[in-house]
Amino acid sequence: MRRSAATASGTGTSLNAVLLIRCHDGLKRSPTQGHAVLQMKTYIVKPTTTLDTLNTTSPRHKSKQALVAPPQPLPSPVLYPDRPALKLGLDVHLEFIMAVAQRGHGCPQPPRKFTCQQLIDQVGKWVAEGLAVYCVQESCGFGFVLHRQLVAAGAQSFLITPIALSGKRKTDKLDARALCLRLARWLDGNPDELSPIRIPSEAEQRRREATRRRLFLKRAVRSLANRGHAQVAEYCHQSLPHRWWGPRLWKKVAPTLDSWVRGVLEHLRTLILALENQLQALEQELVQRLQGQQRPRGLGELTLVMLDSEICDWARFHNRKQIGSYTGCCPGEHSSGGKRRVGSIDRMGNGRVRALLVEAVWRFLKWQPHWKAAQLMKVRLSEGPAIRKKTIVALARQLAVDLWRWRTGRCTLAQLGLVPA
Q1: One pLDDT digit (tens) per residue for the chain, 421 residues
Q2: Do the Cβ atoms of 306 and 377 come closer than 8 Å?
Q3: Smallest Cα–Cα separation from 228: which of 251, 244, 248?
Q4: Whole-prediction pTM value?
Q5: Distance separating alpha carbons of residues 90 and 112, to the nearest angstrom
Q6: Helix crossing, 301-311 with 259-287: angle to 10°?
Q7: In the chain, which end has fewer C-beta atoms inside a 10 angstrom radius, N or C?
């Protein structure tokens, strides 16, 4: 082991000297000369550091690493060099599935039409023959049922977001062929051909469905209430008060209406009250998920539950750029040569998450005056309405990053300048 001391300045010895220690780090075979080469490793050692603590981690870093959730790997294929590969491009519909297959590096086969069960049975036969089956399809309103059935049959299935596959000409056969060719190039090592999405578990899907059902019930209540307003305006030429179906207001409104119109509103009122009972029970169920958990002031329980449900798992993101891109609040760009033009946000992420974050930012400006992200943009927030709205969108992206850091244990609310509720 070789050791040297570097002083701070001059030729005298400094008390804050830094030790540079070079020690053996094992043998490594040289790729050019073919013989073993001695590897040296350099450590920068503080005066208070001993050799016993050189290769150990401080307790502060250990505790931080223990709190941070490990990042989840993105979907990737498992290649089998000893097994022939079969690539399947699937254009999925409710009644049938158009499939194009490619064996190895051969030409794609003609398109074939399957039912769902026929495709599952055929994939099972291919797997039994010793083929490594890879499937790709676009995510759509059919969920992940077919994906899970293909995986159960022994195939490797991947889903991508819907994209333009065949230019101006679009048919089921062309789309299935384009998916198959993209899958082949992706398996050959071109990562730009496909960007598979993360598949949520069934438990995550059901938790997310509860929050989306709440939004559906609220829209249904609002639609029925607007129908009542329209009926009274058309047949009585008068307006109804807000939440006219409530017990107190209904006693005042009902005697002033025509008997026929009152009968119509009574049917609407029965439906609205039934939906509100379901909505109230559902909200109580959602709030129970945060029982005993800490949350920042200004971020309501329902908002936090809906964010957690839409994200599914905060640990799925590896860095702040990924969570920022998922919100769809990143600016669009059109640059060429020496010119750079940044436009409006791309809106390519989760629209529900984006709406929740924007609403939360407006509340944070009132209830979280010491939020560090808002402090950095205080000048822009004090400018005109247009600049203020753009700043709110930028803060929504930063809020997603801060919540990701907090939810994964990378920092606390106090470190972000947030006050707990």
Answers
A1: 444 444 444 444 443 444 444 444 444 444 444 444 445 555 454 445 554 544 555 554 444 555 565 666 778 999 999 999 999 999 999 999 999 999 999 999 999 999 999 999 999 999 999 999 999 999 988 889 999 999 999 999 999 988 888 778 889 999 999 999 999 999 999 999 998 999 999 999 999 999 999 999 999 999 999 999 999 999 999 999 999 999 999 999 999 999 999 999 999 999 999 999 999 999 999 999 998 899 999 999 999 999 999 999 999 999 999 999 999 998 888 888 888 888 888 888 899 999 999 999 999 999 999 999 999 999 999 888 999 999 999 999 999 999 999 999 999 999 999 999 8
A2: no
A3: 244
A4: 0.78
A5: 10
A6: 70
A7: N
Q: Are strands 97-103 and 85-92 parallel, antiparallel or unpaired?
A: antiparallel
Convert 383-414 to b/e letters by CB count within 10 Å (16 or more is b).
Answer: eeeeeeeebbbbbbbbbbbbbbbbbbbeeebe
How would you class 231 by CB atoms within 10 Å of its CB: exposed for 0-12, middle for 13-18, buried for 19 or more? middle
What token pair was written down for 53?
A: 């603590």
CATH code of the domain made up of 85-187? 3.30.420.40
